[in-house]
């Protein structure tokens, strides 16, 4: 059962087309039983006071600008077209994955992402159709923040960025490298670059509309914890940890059982 669960969780990660927060919310709901309204300080969020102020700024901007645009985009855009737009930007992200997979020494994942990039860019007509996934060619998405974690920067402080949203000090440090791996940066056409960037943001925001209903309690803490769990999940490549009951050599010891337990059960 544990192996099956890990396989399904990794499949969900591979198919994610939106920000890491999308997966994070799902993982958070499934595995976190703690209350989000607790007042205890979070060890990874020592700058919570500053982060909350930035969160309020982002939330107001989203509520009165980005969210209405995303709703309008979803309303006027047919589902197949919206899917193709998401596929297009996901295909561009394969370049970043290839580079970071190589930096992390993950040759197999780099090969898979290269294959996905070639297939979807050609047979998939510029990435509009995800033909590679239909061929069961899938890999783990990688970015420079994950690379820094593999290189040793495992723990990092949570940081809410203006406009960009949830991040960590480590992931923010990796943003310039990720931006340099974005093919849109090399179009030499400022108008097209801006248009594609805006479309990517709006498409991503539209993909998160339905998931807002999952948020409960303190929105700031919910999003923070969801993001941090999502990033840890991605850094571990979807590994959920070992389950001793799934090991073939797991055995019960006689000392684990007490005769008194059986006597009590019999007395009942």
Automatic annotation (TrEMBL):
InterPro entries: MlaA. The keyword Lipoprotein applies. It comes from the Bacteria. Keywords: Lipoprotein, Signal. Pfam families: MlaA. Belongs to the MlaA family. This is VacJ family lipoprotein. It comes from Vreelandella vilamensis.
């Amino acid at each position: 059962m544990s192996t099956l669960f890990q396989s399904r969780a990794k499949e969900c990660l591979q198919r994610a087309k939106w920000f890491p927060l999308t997966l994070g919310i799902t993982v958070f709901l499934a595995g976190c039983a703690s209350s989000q309204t607790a007042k205890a300080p979070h060890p990874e969020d020592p700058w919570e006071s500053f982060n909350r102020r930035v969160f309020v700024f982002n939330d107001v901007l989203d509520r009165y600008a980005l969210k209405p645009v995303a709703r309008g985009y979803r309303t006027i855009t047919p589902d197949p077209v919206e899917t193709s737009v998401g596929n297009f930007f996901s295909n561009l992200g394969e370049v970043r994955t290839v580079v970071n997979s190589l930096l992390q020494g993950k040759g197999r994942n780099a090969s898979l992402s290269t294959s996905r990039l070639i297939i979807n860019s050609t047979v998939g007509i510029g990435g509009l159709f995800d033909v590679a996934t239909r061929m069961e060619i899938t890999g783990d998405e990688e970015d420079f923040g994950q690379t820094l974690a593999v290189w040793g920067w495992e723990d990092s402080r949570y940081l809410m960025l203006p406009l960009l949203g949830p991040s960590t000090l480590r992931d923010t440090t990796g943003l310039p490298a990720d931006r340099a791996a974005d093919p849109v940066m090399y179009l030499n056409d400022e108008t097209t670059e801006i248009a594609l960037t805006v479309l990517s943001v709006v498409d991503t925001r539209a993909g998160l509309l339905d998931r807002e209903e999952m948020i409960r309690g303190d929105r700031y803490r919910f999003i923070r914890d969801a993001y941090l769990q999502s990033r840890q999940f991605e850094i571990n490549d979807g590994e959920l940890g070992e389950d001793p009951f799934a090991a073939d050599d797991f055995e019960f010891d006689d000392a684990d059982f007490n005769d008194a337990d059986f006597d009590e059960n019999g007395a009942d």
